Amino acid sequence: MKNLETYCKKTWCPGCGNFGILTALEQAVASLMNNGINKENLVIVSGIGCHAKIVDYLNLNTFYSLHGRPIASAEGIKLGNPNLNVIVCAGDGDAYDEGISHLIHSAKRNINITVLIHNNRTFALTTGQFTSTSPYGFKGKSTPNGSIEKPLNPLKLMLASNAMFIARGYSAETEHLKNLIIKAVNYQGFSFIDILQPCMSFTPEAYQFYNKRVYKLKNKNLTSKEYALKKIEEWEYDKDTPKIPIGIFYKRNQNSYGKILLKNLEK
Ligand SMILES: Cc1ncc(C[n+]2csc(CCOP(=O)(O)OP(=O)(O)O)c2C)c(N)n1
Ligand code: SF4
After folding, report:
1. 200 touches ligand 2 (CB under 6 Å)
2. In 10 A of CB 27, how many CB atoms?
3. Which atom of ligand 1 lies at the shortest distance from residue 120's CA?
4. What CATH number is associated with residue 220?
5. pTM (2 d.p.)
């Protein structure tokens, strides 16, 4: 893991959930490299935001893209060189607001990339505006009296978009998250992990909220859409819920976009 460090000073706030995601990603990459994936063939693509600084802290091939456009950039990289393993690090603002159409289409076409969402449920870098996953009543710069919209459940959106690998992690459960990332990268198709990430500046109560409710799924029936939906609906990203499952909700094999494209080109 030492080889993955860079000289950059980490400027995230103390306690930021991004630290846990960085640790899990470093550990996952180290493990993938020990198991046959070359460092040269790994690319991390970020959006713009606090989460995006992760590319400065990883001694890997990285691409800092535009806000809302990391998934589109990653698709281009993957299609340009199918030998690469491409991992996207996006914010919830990036992926569930500005770039939501890219997320939906990437899932729909089942392109072989891994998408990690650093979901702090706010536009953090621009000082705390509400996003699609902010809870009802969220008070921020753009909603001083509290948001009056119900949040989006991104896992449900992914299920409806025909994503074949749908998971949720938690930045404070680094070992669990590391294993999810390894499975997602090894999966031959579009893989999606929504990562619960407390933000110390704008959602500081999140650690307490998640620590009380998060539990690990023991899903043995990964190909059942009905079971996945039932588990996904246990938490609608709102405030009141007794428990929040993390782990893989749904996983099914299907030819990826790249595979079908290559077959068609050979015809
Ligand atoms: C096209 C475009 N729109 C808006 C911005 C301004 N902007 C920069 S970072 C950011 C918020 C990022 O929020 P999120 O993606 O959730 O990441 P976080 O900072 O929470 O990690 C915004 C709105 C921009 N840079 N480019
Ligand atoms: S503002 Fe929030 S997301 Fe950004 S570095 Fe600070 S704690 Fe992390």
Report:
1. yes
2. 19
3. 20
4. 3.40.50.970
5. 0.98
